[in-house]
Amino acid sequence: MLSELNNIAKQFQVEGEIESIKPLGEGFINDTYILKTIGEDSPNYLFQRKNKTIFKDVPSMMDNIHNITTHLKAKIVANGGDPLRETMTLTKTHDGRLYQLDEEGEFWTMCLFIDDSVSYESADTPELAYSGGKGIGKFQRMTSDYKGQLVDILPGFHNIRFRFEQWDEVLAKDPVGRKSMVMEEISWIEDRREEMLQFWTLVEEGTIPTRVTHNDTKINNILFDKKGDVLCMIDLDTVLSSTALNDFGDAMRSYTNTGLEDDTELDNVSMDLEIFTAYTKGYLEEAKSFLVQSEMDYLAFSAKYITYEQVLRFLMDYIAGDTYYKIKSPEHNLVRTHAQYKLLQSMEAQFKTMQDVVKSYL
């Protein structure tokens, strides 16, 4: 395998001689390696095999990343920054492509490794949540004037109308006979259907605009320098055009949960208002310069929207027979459903306060 990795890596424009290629991280979606070169004068690289099962159009995905990082680099240079540290830098193959196909038809890509940077696995303090908000807000602000096209590499992503079409089909088929066992949980979804569709209609009509969005806003997708300041967003595989509210809502779903996504002790699960407040402050310091009124009006709601969508998706997968999410037990998706619903209930109970927090920082 090491010999194969070396052969593939040599197809890229690597500066210096390759010293080692070793796995990096847990690799839930892509297989990621760090490629180290000999000597201090040549850079190190991140080397990835992209998951073509999830990303069905890797060439377009790489074009999206190239277009956005090119846009960012021009702004960073104009602002007197360092374009090699303040955004990702893709490494092309010797024939100028953004990816290399191996003999099995797998897609490999490479980018510069940003040395002397820090990342975090969770935002468990208000200070980190504030920094995370600034990171997402900064990325959206710097891409808010991007005029190019982005290929939709994840059709239906965060589109609740699309999710309801899938939901209705699964309920009609009831493929493994579980529907009758979760009628109460189904009512959780149906009771909020109209509210969620009303929001998404505003996006479809353009009342809430679409922008460049990251779509995977975990804090470990933000790099910081040694002083704790935001360097850049990484893992741009999911970049596409959507509402900026999706990024905010998705961050709030993951940042503010006091429990686990699949917590069996529901008393552990709630929305941490202090974390919500800190993130909102950091985000709006960067984002309020470009957000329009409709986005401001629905910022707090987006946390409920994304959390609701995840309740629906976990429950839908349980009814469908666990065909999408990996499970550790037959009831795993139902456990996830209950934990996410508890988080949603906590958001609903604190919604007026969440709206007041947003207004206070606007």
Description:
By secondary structure, the chain is an alpha+beta fold. Helices cover 46% and strands 11% of the residues. It has helices at residues 2-9, 58-78, 126-143, 160-173, 183-190, 193-205, 244-255, 273-287, 293-297, 299-320, 332-349, 351-361, and strands spanning 18-23, 31-37, 45-49, 100-101, 107-112, 211-213, 222-224, 230-233, 240-242. A five-stranded antiparallel beta sheet has the order 1-2-3-5-4, with helices on one face. The longest helix is centred in the C-terminal third of the chain and has 22 residues, at 299-320. It starts with a helix and ends with a helix. The model has no long low-confidence stretch (mean pLDDT 95).
Task: Strand order, main sheet: write it out.
Answer: 1-2-3-5-4
End-to-end span in angstroms?
54 Å
* Mean model confidence by pLDDT: 95
Total beta strands: 9
* Class by alpha and beta content: alpha+beta
Helix content: 40-55%
**Inertia-based shape:** globular
Q: SSE string, helix = H, strand = E?
A: HEEEHEEHHHHEEEEHHHHHH
**Radius of gyration, CA atoms, in whole angstroms:** 21 Å
Low-confidence stretches: none
Question: What profile does the largest beta sheet have?
Answer: 5 strands, antiparallel
DSSP strand (E) fraction?
Answer: 5-15%
> How many DSSP helices?
12
